[in-house]
Design brief:
Layout: E1 3-7, E2 13-15, E3 21-23, H1 28-40, E4 44-49, H2 70-82, E5 90-91, E6 102-105, H3 110-113, H4 119-131, E7 135-138, E8 160-161, H5 166-172, H6 182-189, E9 192-193, E10 203-206, E11 209-212, H7 218-229
Parallel strand pairs: 1-4, 1-6, 4-5, 6-7, 7-11, 8-9
Antiparallel strand pairs: 2-3, 10-11
Helix pairs in contact: 1-2, 1-7
């Protein structure tokens, strides 16, 4: 059995270019699909958030239309209700990488707000990358990589990475409302950003870094991490 750290956003909003706060948090599928996969493989999960706040689910991610229908939405809601780890997170500031065998960052627009500028998260990402342990980052969560370059060049520069694309943000209706776009900022960071078809599963694996483009990528990414953990 391995112990996996889920690093999650601690905010329930995303500040748009006009200063308004869009209600958000984490995206349900990106938590539930890996949670189910890791639990089924017998692994232990610990959730960490900035300040140890209980993470907020983006209500839009619970809708039937983004979960393959009512049955899928019901299954997502059931797992979230049963996942006690989500209701007792540790403080991200206190997380010790040595205690974990893998690290996983789910997305949602929340990480664009807080993890993108969180130095504790940035230090954890740097340490995880250097450790060789599986590091999974999905959808908008690669925004957290931006915090690895606060004091200079990022250790992720040159790595093959994917994440929520400009095309997907445009189709989601936020590209013209956002302060910045994730794909643009990751390219500026120096990663080798790879773009797949909008909304289709697409993962990139470069050494111990596992990234997924969108919610549909979270399940295949989790399967690869399970494989890596043996």
């Amino acid at each position: 059995m391995s112990k996996i750290l889920f690093v999650m956003t601690g905010v329930d909003y995303w500040t748009l270019a006009d200063g308004t706060k869009h209600p958000t948090g984490y995206w349900a599928e990106e938590v539930v699909a890996p949670y189910d996969a890791f639990k089924a493989a017998g692994h232990e999960i610990v959730v960490a958030t900035p300040g140890g706040v209980v993470p907020t689910v983006d209500r839009g991610s619970l809708a039937p239309e983004v979960n393959g229908g009512a049955d899928g939405a019901d299954a997502i809601a059931r797992t979230l209700a049963e996942a006690t780890e989500l209701r007792k997170p540790i403080r991200l500031e206190d997380a010790d990488l040595a205690e974990y065998d893998a690290v996983y960052y789910p997305g949602g627009h929340g990480p664009m707000e807080d993890l993108s500028v969180n130095a504790d998260s940035g230090a954890l990402l740097d340490a995880a990358l250097a450790s060789g342990k599986p590091l999974g980052v999905v959808c908008h969560a690669p925004a957290a990589l931006l915090a690895t370059a606060i004091d200079g060049d990022s250790s992720f520069a040159g790595y093959r990475v994917t994440g929520f694309t400009n095309a997907e943000e445009a189709q989601a209706g936020f590209a013209d409302k956002a302060k910045w776009l994730l794909e643009d900022r990751l390219v500026e960071l120096g990663v080798d950003f790879r773009v797949g078809e909008p909304w289709a599963p697409h993962i990139e694996i470069d050494r111990n870094l596992y990234t997924g483009q969108n919610p549909a990528s979270s399940a295949p990414l989790a399967a690869e991490i399970v494989k890596a953990l043996g």
